[in-house]
Design goal:
The complex is a heterotrimer.
Chain A (H helix, E strand, L loop, with lengths): L8 H11 L1 H14 L8 H26 L7 H16 L4 H25 L4 H20 L9 H8 L1 E2 L2 E2 H19 L1 H11 L1 H6 L4 H27 L10 H12 L10 H20 L4 H27 L3
Antiparallel strand pairs in A: 1-2
Chain B lengths: L7 E12 L2 E12 L3 E5 L6 H9 L6 E6 L2 E2 L5 H7 L1 E4 L11 H5 L9 H15 L15 H14 L4 E5 L7 H16 L3 E5 L3 H7 L2 E6 L2 E7 L5 H9 L21 E8 L7 E6 L3 E6 L5 H9 L8 E4 L2 E2 L5 H6 L2 E4 L3 H5 L6 H6 L7 E2 L2 E2 L1 H15 L15 H13 L5 E5 L7 H16 L3 E5 L3 H7 L2 E6 L2 E6 L6 H9 L8
Parallel strand pairs in B: 3-8, 3-9, 6-7, 7-8, 13-20, 13-21, 16-19, 19-20
Antiparallel strand pairs in B: 1-2, 1-4, 4-5, 9-10, 11-12, 11-14, 14-15, 17-18, 21-22
Chain C lengths: L6 H11 L1 H16 L6 H26 L7 H19 L1 H25 L5 H23 L4 E2 L8 H8 L1 E2 L2 E2 H19 L1 H11 L1 H6 L4 H27 L1 E2 L7 H12 L10 H20 L4 H23 L1
Antiparallel strand pairs in C: 1-4, 2-3
Classes of the chains: A mainly alpha, B alpha/beta, C mainly alpha.
Chain lengths: 323, 504, 324
């Protein structure tokens, strides 16, 4: 029989984990760090690692949804910046929750517009969301005159930097978002339909799935997560800036792909994307601990990206060439 | 609610559908009773697929009535027709490859089925009911064609379908799998489910169907119980003329001596092929007969250099030749017209001219530059010689009919004057008229001294056009026959091996 | 029949296929009305100078996209070429440094194609992230090589007249960089229309399998498109640092997105198999003119980015619409 999904949940997880190169890479790094005398294996550091990954993870969860539906969203850099700025601007004039809701609402609106172009107008998602990101950055610059702005509200900073016990708030929020998204993708009709739409759009439509509405909703959700990430970033740094998010879009999409979600659509999942993003955070943390120069770290990062994708492609090529 | 004939599950009366410039269906009337198998035959363009699409709701009819299960149907969507109990199993299947079998069966109905567990439990029940052991957790991409068909049938059953339409279900099945399909059809019949079976394989129609409807040019020509028709009757009605000869006179080479060897292949071994050795004589048509998946395409792809193969021996005209890629093959005079013209043969968004010139580009190149006026000449030459029906040589290839598209690809390869022309399913999906033209082409190639390797799943085609036939079974060459003398049954036996009876 | 041109259908065709040309003409027209200084020689020269870097990179990107792939390593290559070329001017001489820079671009591009070919990446998406990773590596190498410092051309004691010429010089009323651009455009256009490999690139982008089975040099085309992209990117980088007289290790930032946008706005689709360098020129023209016209009209810098983004989105949207 087949080896991939022969049995329900438990067996599948093990099979998936052993195949996911990102996972193996993380394990490898964890193993390597055992041999060095650093503060890597301290609760403080590990939590800090998770904290630094959490915002990108949140972006990744929304992006994963759009990629599974067969699209992609490269505007998240612009969305995060603008949402952060707007929220910071509003925080001095209204209770924090309202300001945050406004920021999230903005994200939803941006996602809605993305959805309009990609789903309704059938525009190529890569390029239109790229352009959207540029536009949003422009708006951010216009609003702030390209100067970072900050709020006077101390509680706002607490959200981004506080802890519940030992665990940073950001990590908690990340885990909550992750579980929600996982539930949506795996246990709701909406989520399963996302896989169907990405797997074969025409078949999904033929089966009566309202592909337009679902894909559009996926973009809205992605906008919301992008806004959430931006708000949390602004909360952590207590400032909103149009400079945030320049390389985020490509990096997050890259992390999702490295984790195993394919641009072709219909394949992948939340945990896989989480691991894909985590690879880079773990890498950065390990290299920092080892005192490696920042520029050389960048070389490592590039090599990891190329290696994992290369291995994935090569594996697929081998499968195809079984003659 | 009309209740005229409670036995008939489907009644179509005088259904007409016109597209701009084309009358696809003209006053078509069809009736299928519960538990009955209706065979629907006709050439490409006869209107079968338009009919199906109207039934399933993809198209809306212009006029006429459709009564399904006692209710008149108007303007239905595909989903509605599914829910009413009318399922269609398309040739290319309506499945999401990246999802599991269970989810595919209940695609879009996740909530109804109470999530993953419910979906897979119910799916398991359905598959068991048709005797299938497929794991509901397998991905569709991992299934064989026959297994995918089972999933589609299970899907139809999941909607409590009362009528299942099968479009060319047997084109990729082995004899065993076809038998299984027939068994299931009989089971469905017993359950009172009606089937419309669309197929080009007239033998299957005779074996499986109760009645047969013959269509031509958008009209229903006749509907008769299967026992009252002969094969020739059927073909005559399909084509509108009495076909004395579906095939031209068997090609015979006038140029070469019949025993001159052109190509020798020795010890071809791959994961699928075992020790393949054969020869191709000059001026002959060598037919490969075998079930789908036996390895016929793999053999020719290896000869053409399309697949990476190691350690085999190819000799052309006695000289050892190394063919590592299609370019080497081209240089050695080998040409290959692949199975799937849309995916592997044509650059669909390119013009007819560019498609024809594609294999000859290196010959049109001097110091790196293309001779575009010579290219035009080549295109003109082949459009004329092959009778390719196109408004202009710059028309985009996607706009041509299947037969004309195929001619473009054949023309492309004839341009390089190959010694060996490999044709893989050259007449698939092409109507009888265009088929005949391709047969004449093959005849001409051979009469001018070229050799052809012909792969086809239509046994009569191979038997009528080849000078010599090799049977291939499970990666091995199991027999060699002279199609004029040997009898079809012994050839078939060698082609299917010891694994049972049946037809291709 | 005769020679009567059906004007309505010409205009319809123009709008359909060359909407961008119409947009450019409209833009220029509006600007001239409000600010006739647009047509001054100073401004026109300025426009020509702006053309250089982005247009070179975009021309290179065009073939990659026509071939059905994408090249995100542009930023990294630009940075690497800039820092290495500038550092070689003194020890090796101006021309050798220039050649070296172009060779580095070619080598980096070739390396990209090698990575993509060896793993059998079939789709644009896989190539996308591979080149993204390569860009990270090239950019890192640039940072390491330059130790993060920006090199100033004025620090170079031996002559830099070649680069000054490229950056600021003129040939008649045309800037040197514009002349170089026209030359490259001419060569690449001939390549696209008249050569075997040019045709091979289009066929590869349309249907790789069919091309391979017809004996077309698919692998060679892929290597070529990335190498051309590498060389053109290097040329663009040289033009850029010559003009701004500094070589920063992050000089290439955002060039990949701008180049892709220019190509797509010009009308070449990301699907591959169709397009033209001429269309890319239109795309670059629109992007460049947008900045210039808006400057002329007194639009604030940030508002410009907003409008530019909005116009690009509309351009892409409308262009995509005509296809579906």
């Amino acid at each position: 029989m087949d080896t991939k999904t022969a049995s329900p949940f438990g067996g599948r997880i093990i099979k998936l984990a052993t195949r996911q190169k990102a996972f193996i890479a993380i394990i490898a790094m964890l193993v390597v760090m055992i041999f060095f005398d650093t503060k890597f294996y301290t609760v403080y550091n590990l939590l800090d690692l998770l904290k630094s990954a959490s915002i990108n993870e949140i972006f990744a969860f929304g992006v994963t949804l759009t990629i599974i539906c067969g699209g992609c969203d490269l505007s998240i850099g612009g969305t995060m910046g603008l949402a952060g700025i707007v929220t910071v601007m509003l925080i001095d004039h209204m209770p924090i929750p309202f300001a945050i809701v406004c920021g999230l609402g903005l994200g939803a609106f941006i996602g809605f517009i993305n959805g309009f172009f990609v789903v309704h107008q059938k525009t190529e998602p890569f390029i239109i969301t790229l352009g959207m990101g540029m536009l949003l950055k422009g708006i951010s610059q216009q609003l702030t005159d390209a100067h970072p702005i900050s709020s006077k509200n101390p509680n706002f900073m607490m959200i981004g930097n506080g802890k519940a016990g030992v665990v940073p708030n950001l990590v908690i929020i990340m885990i909550i978002v992750m579980l929600i998204m996982y539930y949506i993708l795996r246990y709701t009709q909406f989520g399963r339909n996302c896989y169907a739409i990405g797997g074969d759009y025409d078949v999904a439509v033929y089966s009566g799935i309202n592909a337009v509405r679902i894909k559009w909703a996926a973009y809205v959700i992605c906008g919301i997560t992008a806004a959430l990430g931006g708000i949390l970033l602004s909360a952590r740094l207590n400032s909103g800036s149009s400079n945030y998010g320049d390389t985020t879009a490509l990096m997050v999409n890259c992390g999702v792909v490295v984790g195993g979600t394919s641009f072709a659509g219909g394949i992948g999942g939340i945990f896989q994307s989480a691991i894909g993003i985590l690879v880079f955070s773990v890498l950065e943390n390990c290299l920092n601990m080892l005192g490696i120069d920042a520029y050389i770290q960048q070389v490592f990062k590039g090599v990891v990206i190329v290696s994992i994708i290369w291995l994935d492609c090569f594996g697929r090529k081998r499968k195809r060439e079984v003659v | 609610m009309e209740n005229i004939d409670s036995e008939a599950i489907l009644k179509m009366k005088d259904v007409t559908k016109t597209f701009p410039g084309v009358k696809a269906l003209e006053k078509v009337s069809i009736e299928v009773k519960r538990g009955q198998v209706l065979g629907l035959v006709g050439e490409n363009g006869a209107g079968k697929s338009t009919l199906m699409k109207i039934l399933s709701g993809v198209y809306t009819k212009d006029s006429g009535t459709v009564i399904f299960d006692g209710e008149t149907i108007e303007n239905i969507t595909p989903v509605e027709s599914l829910h009413r109990g009318l399922s269609i199993i398309y040739q290319e299947f309506n499945l999401v490859n990246s999802m599991t079998v269970g989810e595919n069966i209940y695609l879009g109905r996740f909530k109804e089925m109470r999530g993953m567990r419910g979906t897979h439990a119910k799916a398991r029940e359905l598959l068991d009911s048709i005797g299938s052991r497929i794991d509901t957790w397998s991905l569709v991409s991992e299934l064989s064609v026959s297994e995918m068909q089972m999933v589609e049938i299970a899907k139809a059953l999941s909607f409590n379908s009362k009528l299942i339409i099968m479009d060319e279900p047997s084109s990729s099945l082995t004899a065993d799998e076809l038998k299984k399909l027939f068994d299931i059809v009989h089971q469905l019949k017993k359950r009172g489910i009606a089937i419309i079976y669309i197929s080009h394989k007239l033998d299957e129609i005779f074996d499986l169907c109760d009645i047969v409807t013959i269509m031509r040019d958008g009209h229903v020509i006749d509907t008769k119980p299967v026992g009252e028709l002969t094969r020739n009757d059927m073909i005559a009605k399909m084509v509108g003329r009495s076909i004395e000869n579906e095939y031209p006179e068997r090609p015979r080479c006038a140029v070469h001596c019949p025993s001159d060897t052109l190509l020798e292949v020795r010890s071809l071994n791959t994961k699928k092929l075992h020790d393949i050795s054969f020869t191709l004589k000059k001026g002959e048509i060598l037919g490969f007969i075998g079930l789908v998946g036996a390895g016929r395409t793999e053999i020719v792809r290896a000869v053409f250099g399309a697949d990476k193969v190691k350690g085999h021996d190819i000799r052309i005209n006695g000289k050892h030749i190394k063919i590592k890629n299609p370019r080497d093959a081209k240089a050695a005079g080998v040409a290959f017209v692949p199975e799937d013209r849309k995916l592997q043969g044509l650059a669909l968004s390119f013009s007819v001219k560019h498609n024809i010139s594609m294999a000859a580009l290196d010959r049109l190149t001097k110091y790196g530059f293309l001779n575009t006026s010579a290219e035009k000449g080549i295109a003109e030459k082949h459009i004329k010689a092959l009778g390719i029906k196109t408004p202009h040589m710059n028309t985009t290839a996607v706009n041509l009919s299947g037969g004309n598209q195929q001619k473009c690809i054949v023309g492309r390869w004839l341009e390089i004057n190959p010694n060996i022309l490999i044709l893989d399913e050259p007449t698939r999906g092409i109507d009888v008229g265009a088929k005949y033209e391709i047969y004449l082409l093959m005849k001409k190639v051979v009469e001018n001294g070229g050799s052809i390797i012909l792969i086809s799943s239509e046994l009569p085609e191979v038997l009528n056009m080849s000078n010599r036939v090799l049977t291939i079974c499970e990666g091995r060459i199991t027999g060699e026959f002279d199609p004029e003398e040997a009898d079809a049954n012994s050839i078939m036996e060698k082609a299917i091996g010891l694994s049972g009876e049946g037809k291709i | 029949m005769g020679l009567q041109i059906n004007h309505r259908s010409v205009i319809k065709a123009l709008f359909k296929d060359y909407l961008i040309l119409v947009a450019i003409i409209a833009l220029v027209f509006v600007t001239i009305i409000f600010e006739p200084k647009f047509l001054s020689s100073a401004n026109l020269t300025n426009i020509m100078r702006q053309f250089g870097p982005l247009s070179m990179v975009s021309l290179g990107m065009t073939f990659v996209i026509i071939g059905g792939f994408i090249d995100l390593s542009v930023a990294g290559i630009m940075s690497l070429v800039a820092v290495i070329t500038v550092s070689l001017i003194e020890p090796a001489g101006q021309f050798p440094a220039l050649i070296a820079g172009l060779c580095i671009g070619a080598a980096a591009g070739y390396l990209n194609s090698a990575v993509i070919l060896t793993c059998g990446a079939l789709t644009s998406a896989e190539a996308l992230f591979i080149t993204f990773g390569m860009s990270t590596v090239y950019g890192a190498l640039a940072l390491i090589f330059s130790k993060g410092a920006t090199q100033h051309m004025s620090w170079i004691t031996s002559g830099t007249w070649v680069y000054d010429a490229i950056g600021q010089g003129s040939v008649g009323f045309l800037s040197v960089s514009f002349v170089v651009f026209l030359l490259c455009l001419f060569i690449l256009y001939i390549f696209q229309q008249k050569t075997y490999l040019g045709r091979a690139v289009f066929l590869t982008g349309c249907n790789k399998t069919a091309a391979e089975l017809s004996g077309v040099h698919v692998k060679r085309s892929i290597r070529l498109i990335y190498t051309i992209s590498g060389i053109m990117t290097a040329a663009g980088s040289i033009m850029l640092f010559s003009r701004v007289t500094t070589a920063s290790p992050v000089i290439g930032k955002n060039y990949e997105t701008n180049a892709i946008l220019a190509v797509v706005v010009g009308g070449t689709t990301l699907r591959g198999g169709e397009g033209s360098v001429l269309r890319t020129v239109l795309g670059v023209m629109l992007v460049t003119l947008l900045s210039n016209c808006m400057n002329m009209l007194g639009v604030s810098t940030f508002m410009q980015t907003v409008l530019k983004g909005a116009i690009l989105i509309i351009a892409i949207w409308l262009d995509n619409r005509k296809e579906s």
